[in-house]
Amino acid sequence: MPVHASTTVLGTLALALIAVLVDPVWRWTGKVETLVHEAGHATVLLATGNWVTGLTLHPGARAGGFTGLPKDRQVWWPSAIVAAMAGYTAPAVSGLVLAGAADRGWSPVKVLGTLLVVLVVLAIFQENWTTLLVISSTGVLLALFLWRAGAAAQVGVVIGLAWFLLLAGLRALWEIGHAPASKITDFKYLADRTSLPAGVWFLASALISIFSLVAAARWLLY
Questions:
Q1: How many distinct structural domains can be found in the chain?
Q2: What is the pLDDT of residues 180-192, one digit of tens each?
Q3: What is the pLDDT of residues 51-60, one digit of tens each?
Q4: 57, part of any domain
Q5: What are phi and psi of 110, to 5 degrees?
Q6: CA angle 142, 165, 113 (to 5 degrees)
Q7: Residue 130 belongs to what domain range?
């Protein structure tokens, strides 16, 4: 998957900026960011031996989401900390992985195919129509590019998704930045489970997201 066709890199960056910065567009594209956020929680929980009862994206514009756990299950402390941190950092880290895949010439067919498999798994855990709609519509778009598009367009999709997730993760943090970190569920949970204040966890998430964007930009632009 050769990457550095500057028109592709810059064109997809422009589209990603529109998807993230234009509010009427972000009302809908932000749902994908929320899905990745909740998938980050779920992935870490499942990978560390915990069960997830479901993923829920709340209806309405940018209404957030929820990852359910069995009520009688206590999550092991390190797993709980990493899982809580994985939410707001998941979009940026996912974008960094996609940028790395493009930079290293991975097959776009394999990358898009892997994303489709991930969406199918997420569909198993969805708990409402909003979540199912976001998963299915995203999956249909990916499947169309996988089935009908040429290699160059598929590379563009991978790069565009990378830019979108990197920027969307930062926008999500920006949106909550005006509120006290102790009022944000993920960071309040982290503060309650550790001796560190919620603001420290917010700052850590922001630094991870910024680092991911800088690293990915170096791969894609140079």
A1: 1
A2: 877 888 999 999 9
A3: 899 999 988 7
A4: no
A5: -70, -40
A6: 30
A7: 6-49+75-221
